[in-house]
Write the structure tokens for this entry.
Amino acid sequence: MGIDKMIGLKSMLAILKTEITKKDKNKMDEIDRCFSFCYLCEKRFMIIYNVTVSIEYEVQDEWLEWMKSVHIPEVLATGKFMECRMSKILAEEEGGAAYSIQYLCENMETLNSYQKEHAPELQRKHQEKYGTKALAFRTLLDIVHIERTNG
């Protein structure tokens, strides 16, 4: 999709967004996802900061709730990431489950800033709360191509 078409799409989304009432949060969320996709297409590349966590079954439910209600909101509140996706890895783990938490970041400079200014404290909190019951490793992914269906 060309930049001129992308700008037109963003303009249409902005108009649509102003016409939808705040009561229809699902539609607003969908429009926000479209804006995010337009932004990705304009930038041509982004960085995914992926955190893979192996969590013991005995604390899995508590950990999931804590991640959704505390940790992920704290990470996003740093202003360094545009969105977060959490997925359960569909593979059998001995004694636990595994999750992938993917944070979308604009560029390496922003990610480096996050890692220097915020990551040590946020990782310390996670470690103090779950210790060896949650083991994490991190990988960086560079988005080089995005393609969507029309459906």
